[in-house]
Design brief:
496 residues, alpha/beta, Aldehyde Dehydrogenase, Chain A, domain 1, Aldehyde Dehydrogenase, Chain A, domain 2, 2 domains, seven-stranded mixed beta sheet, 26 strands, 38% helix, binds NADPH dihydro-nicotinamide-adenine-dinucleotide phosphate, binds 3-phosphoglyceric acid, EC 1.2.1.9, cytoplasm, NADP-dependent glyceraldehyde-3-phosphate dehydrogenase, NADP, glyceraldehyde-3-phosphate dehydrogenase (NADP+) (non-phosphorylating) activity
Length: 496
């Protein structure tokens, strides 16, 4: 059970502690932040509301711990990461349990998230020892006007303190996707978990604690982003911010100083369906892509752009599959569970009502109880409806009928977002041309958008982000290139 056994020390009465200087602590604020269970809409957990002084203390510790961590051999950093991964996987139950309770993720998917996170940490350790163990050697005489008098050696050095801010929907996985690359690269790490998802993150951090990382190297500050977010992101000790979430990321980017930013933000992933597509395959992918975790994925299918000639048939197939989705508690592995908050449910409802007023075809009756919204397919959506452009982050999928492929591409490219997209056709040549024309970070051919596997590059164009994720890209982003040039008194060439 969460907060018991191996994890008992992370709890103080009914409030979870924060983590600093290698210890679990109670905030001097005397205040806590409530975490609501999205399904019951009752307070499930409480976490510390950390103060600015506590943030300052953590940053000082992170700065000094990083100096000695950077001198720790790569293989030792990797060894500790492997240890943390093993502890995490061995103790998946309390983390999965808290994911169910604080973000209403179905029980099976919650376990998958923790296991995937352990695998990500291990992969990162292995990738890190390889790519950070290599550098470059350049010779001066390849540039015009130079003899071979200079040997240039390059290597990758850490940035310093990395601030990691993940979102609610994959709190554990999107936290470790920032923590593991930061640590293997020799950085220290300050984590600000999402409020919904904080308890799962605190358990995950305890796994790193149990693995024996040096004191101060990893910290976890809890509190509402709206209250301590600016103080954290504008803190002078921070040398890199890795953020995943919504528009907040855009304002952080504007306020952050001259530091590397990794921003994975919202998306309006389009699914373009050509008239030669395998419609059974498309229908299954719309269900998986649009309704998994009740549509609360940045990579969810958020608009279907289907050729008019096959639209009726596709809509019928999707409708039949929607009817089979189960709706209910996450504990019972229901396909559709309560969305994360009442404000989120209200926002989704706003999009649905706007589509209703403007004449969209409802393939199912709209139904909502508390934060639980029944899966809904909206046909005949038009560009004047909000749902054609905004991301619901809920179990609602709009279908726009198109008369040409160009119309589909234009709709996709007119979005402010550019995260992922997908195209369904049996003609691979057409698929490649469409993929090249879509202004998104990734295009999936004949499958729904997805971030995983976690070592693939993952990035958004336009308002969907800055930089690229994926294990290798994250390690690279969290390092800087350092060069040393050896100057010879006379040119030297190897002979023979
Ligand atoms: N591209 C991608 O990889 C992904 C994108 N997303 C996007 O994220 C959104 C949903 O996630 P959600 O968690 O609601 O996103 P938010 O942007 O609301 O929150 C993300 C994180 O930022 C924190 N935060 C809030 N305000 C501030 C602030 N002023 N300064 C610093 N941090 C702050 C939050 O903390 P707190 O919870 O305490 O408010 C949370 O940890 C969707 O738009 C979705 O598309 C989601 C997942 C992946
Ligand atoms: O937050 C998200 O939506 C995730 O980054 C998506 O991950 P997935 O595509 O692997 O589910």
């Amino acid at each position: 059970m969460a907060g018991t056994g191996l994890f008992a020390e992370i709890l103080d009465g009914e409030v979870y502690k924060y983590y600093a200087d290698g210890e679990w602590k109670t905030s001097s604020s005397g205040k806590s932040v409530a975490i609501m269970n999205p399904a019951t809409r009752k307070t499930q957990y409480k976490v510390q509301a950390c103060t600015q002084e506590e943030v300052n203390a953590v940053m000082e510790l992170a700065k000094s711990a990083q100096k000695s961590w950077a001198k720790t051999p790569l293989w030792k950093r990797a060894e500790l990461l492997h240890k943390a991964a093993a502890i995490l996987k061995d103790n998946k139950a309390p983390m999965a349990e808290s994911l169910v309770k604080e973000i209403a993720k179905p029980a099976k998917d919650s376990v998958t998230e923790v296991v995937r996170s352990g695998d990500l940490i291990s992969y990162c350790a292995e990738e890190g020892v390889r790519i950070l163990g290599e550098g470059k050697f350049l010779l001066s005489d390849s540039f015009p006007g130079n003899d071979r008098t200079k040997y240039c050696l390059t290597s990758k050095i850490p940035l310093g303190v990395v601030l990691a801010i993940p979102p609610f929907n994959y709190p554990v996985n999107l936290a470790v996707s920032k923590i593991a690359p930061a640590l293997i690269a020799g950085n220290s790490l300050v984590l600000k978990p999402p409020t919904q998802g904080a308890v799962s993150c605190l358990h995950m951090v305890h796994c790193f604690h149990l693995a024996g990382f040096p004191k101060g190297l990893i910290s976890c500050i809890t509190g509402k982003g709206s209250e301590i977010g600016d103080f954290l992101t504008m803190h002078p000790a921070v040398n890199c911010i890795s953020f995943t979430g919504g528009d907040t990321g855009i304002s952080i980017s504007k306020k952050a100083g001259m530091i590397p930013l990794q921003m994975e933000l919202g998306g309006k992933d389009a699914c373009i369906v050509l008239d030669d597509a395998d419609l059974d395959l498309v229908a299954s992918n719309i269900i998986k892509g649009g309704f998994s975790y009740s549509g609360q994925r940045c990579t969810a299918v958020k608009v279907v752009l289907v050729m008019e000639s096959v639209a009726d048939e596709l809509v019928e197939k999707v409708k039949a599959k929607v009817a089979k989705l189960t709706v209910g508690p996450p504990e019972e592995n229901s396909d559709i569970t309560a969305v994360v908050s009442e404000s989120s449910a209200n926002f989704i409802e706003g999009l649905v009502m706007d589509a209703k007023e403007k004449g969209a075809t409802f393939c199912q009756e709209y139904k909502r109880e508390g934060n639980l919204i029944w899966p809904l397919l909206l046909d005949n959506v038009r560009p004047d409806m909000r749902i054609a452009w905004e991301e619901p982050f809920g179990p609602v999928v709009p279908v726009l009928r198109i008369n040409s492929v160009e119309e589909g591409i234009n709709h996709c490219n007119a979005s402010n977002f550019g995260l992922q997209g997908c195209v369904f056709t049996k003609d691979i040549n057409k698929a490649i041309l469409i993929s090249d024309a879509m202004e998104t970070g990734t295009v999936q051919i004949n499958s729904a958008p997805a971030r995983g596997p976690d070592h693939f590059p993952f990035q958004g164009l336009k308002d969907s982000g800055i930089g690229s994720q994926g294990v290798t890209n994250s390690i690279n982003l969290m390092t800087k290139v350092k060069t040393t040039v050896i100057n010879l008194p006379t040119p030297s060439y190897s002979m023979g």
